[in-house]
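Help needed: design a sequence for this.
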């Protein structure tokens, strides 16, 4: 393990992006966090947004949920698209008459018999996922006005 000094070249202004402290209960906007100055970072860990205004520990942007759109036709999955890389399994409990049955851990504990299928990778398209979610959110706002 090496220890080297790095300099941050440019930081995006995240403004009102919800953020939180890694040490205390502070929650606020990214713009309220102070300059990081010098800190220790572990490769693979998230990047801090700044220093907590309450306790000076590193603060981070709140993790946004992974967004996924699953296309079905007649109960059959046609495609899965996500805003970040996602690997998924399908548990098809309709195994009647099938000779391709696997016994797997059940989601609520114990075991369950499902159609024997491997895992899949979702298509990744952050732009279209954002467009779809905005359209759905706009529908919700329009619906509440009527
Ligand atoms: Zn804090």
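Sure. Designed sequence:
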């Amino acid at each position: 393990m090496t220890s080297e000094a790095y300099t941050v070249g440019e930081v995006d202004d995240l403004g009102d992006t919800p953020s939180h402290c890694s040490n205390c209960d502070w929650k606020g906007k990214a713009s309220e966090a102070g300059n990081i100055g010098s800190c220790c970072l572990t490769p693979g860990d998230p990047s801090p947004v700044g220093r907590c205004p309450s306790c000076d520990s590193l603060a981070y942007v709140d993790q946004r949920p992974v967004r996924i759109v699953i296309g079905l036709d007649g109960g059959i999955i046609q495609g899965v698209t996500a805003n970040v890389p996602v690997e998924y399994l399908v548990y098809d409990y309709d195994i009647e008459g099938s000779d391709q049955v696997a016994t797997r851990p059940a989601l609520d504990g114990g075991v369950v018999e499902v159609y024997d299928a491997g895992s899949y990778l979702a298509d990744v398209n952050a732009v279209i996922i954002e467009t779809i979610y905005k359209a759905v959110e706009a529908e919700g706002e329009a619906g509440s006005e009527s």
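The chain has a mean pLDDT of 90.
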